[in-house]
Amino acid sequence: MTGATSIRKLPSLSGLHHRRNPLEDNPFFHPSDGFYITTSDVILAQVAYDLSAQSQSRVAYHRAGPRREIMYEPSAVKAAIVTCGGLCPGMNTVIRELVVGLWELYGVREIYGIPAGYRGFYSMEAVKLDPKAVHDWHKKGGTVLATSRGGFHLHNIVDAIQLNGFNQVYIIGGDGTMRGAVEIFKEITLRKLEVGITGIPKTVDNDVGIIDRSFGFQTAVEMAQQAISAAHVEAESAVNGIGLVKLMGRSTGHIALHATLSSRDVDCCLIPEMDFYLEGKGGLFEFLEKRLKERGHAVLVVAEGAGQEMIPRNESQKQERDESGNPVFLDVGVWFKSVLKDWWGREHPDELFTVKYIDPTYMIRAVPANATDNLYCTLLAHSAIHGVMAGYTGFVPGPINGNYAYIPLEEVALTKNKVNMSDHKWAWVRSVTNQPDFETNFKGQSL
Ligand SMILES: Nc1ncnc2c1ncn2[C@@H]1O[C@H](COP(=O)(O)OP(=O)(O)O)[C@@H](O)[C@H]1O
Ligand SMILES: O=P(O)(O)OC[C@H]1O[C@](O)(COP(=O)(O)O)[C@@H](O)[C@@H]1O
Ligand SMILES: [Mg+2]
Asked: Where is this site: Important for substrate specificity (predicted)?
């Protein structure tokens, strides 16, 4: 295979001195050949190539892991950890592993938790953390540090970082948080502060781009499946029963898609990436009518961001935003339940019909991480620590094709992981559910 490899450059702190990595003397590690990662170790963004193509350029990221030399004297490190945005299974595990990793791997003793998200930097007292304080946090859902939306005041935050003397900042959060972290990174660079900044990607929606998947996502999918199973039982046990499940997914339908694929009880999955329609040929009602006739029941899974533009709303509802500026949705499940009942009442006024609506929203994200996600959180936290200790800044650690890499923060903040409607996964959903191909049907209808 020919073609150039372009390695994504990582910012690094320039005013620090090289030091021997204390892992050299750590009784649990015996650094030998291949233990340390060098600057020429990279992870390719893409692993599948067409060998018959003439020449292909490749994108690569620096590989995550310990470096032979570090840039901080561990006794001079003052680290801050903050969690922002919505909850996600595993947040406490990441905090725990950052604390334990900094302490055990590098001998850092000054580690602080910032309470309640970005606003906590300038409005609340930081909490001192050590391995004893966090020892069982991985068993708890949520974030012990607390989180919040909004409250992003750049100068107040950077002033507080400076005033407290934090020289490493670990920011755990989703797409909004990453955009904020980019601003913090830029301001820190402008002020010429020797502060390492890393963003640890957290999102139950799995909407952060470039990385394979986000931590907590698998746990959330498992929980979502329980809701689908319950909806299936309810629907099967009724006459013309519809089990309706609303799942999280603000602008991406990954949870709904994965839960549908692994459940196989779902008759139709609706996600924000896809338009659909209710009435007429090829529409949802026609499909459900057929399903109820054939099977006596149907299960409908809808991501919270799907069909939002179809729900009637007043002017103030149109303008509503949460504290971070995210649009506030109307409940698509409540709306669906009512339009389904209206439709059936119109078409079959004398026949029994039941819609059982299950909204497990917060239940899927407020649980502790499962074993796989816990392990993932640990590797993520360790990757973050190794990168910051090595002097990198403005980066995000994350798995790419199964290997951990460092990605420039700005690149992550600009990328969104949406469901690709034209790849095999969505085709697989349609083949499993047999649901209508709304896009094609709609085109056919308007011909
Ligand atoms: N464009 C932005 N610039 C700076 N800060 C932002 C931006 N968008 C969101 N934030 C801040 O990031 C934090 C989390 O954002 P939010 O969208 O609520 O959650 P998430 O990070 O999980 O997507 C909030 O404190 C919010 O004020
Ligand atoms: O926590 P809130 O403010 O109720 O918001 C709920 C939203 O949070 C999420 O769970 C996660 O969103 P973020 O990753 O942006 O925090 C969305 O799925 C959902 O729309
Ligand atoms: Mg978000």
From this structure: 176
CA 101/CA 119 separation, integer angstroms: 26
Q: Distance, CA 259 to ligand 2 centroid (Å)?
A: 18
pTM for the whole structure: 0.96
- What does the angle CA 294 – CA 231 – CA 240 come to, to the nearest 5 degrees? 35
Q: Which residues contact 363 (CB under 8 A, 6 or more apart)?
A: 223, 227
Tokens 């001998």 identify what position?
Answer: 107
Residue 205 annotated as catalytic: yes
Give the residue ranges of the annotated binding site for substrate.
Answer: 203-205, 248-250, 304, 362-365
Enumerate residues lining ligand 2, CB below 6 A: 85-86, 149, 174, 176, 203-205, 248-250, 304, 322, 365
pLDDT tens string, the chain, 447 residues long: the values are: 667 889 999 999 988 899 999 999 988 888 888 899 999 999 999 998 888 887 778 999 999 999 999 999 999 999 999 999 999 999 999 999 999 999 999 999 999 999 999 999 999 999 999 999 999 999 999 999 999 999 999 999 999 999 999 999 999 999 999 999 999 999 999 999 999 999 999 999 999 999 999 999 999 999 999 999 999 999 999 999 999 999 999 999 999 999 999 999 999 999 999 999 999 999 999 999 999 999 999 999 999 999 999 999 998 988 899 999 999 999 999 999 999 999 999 999 999 999 999 999 899 999 999 999 999 999 999 999 999 999 999 999 999 999 999 999 999 999 999 999 988 889 999 999 999 998 887 776 665
Q: Which ligand is nearest to the CA of 171?
A: 1
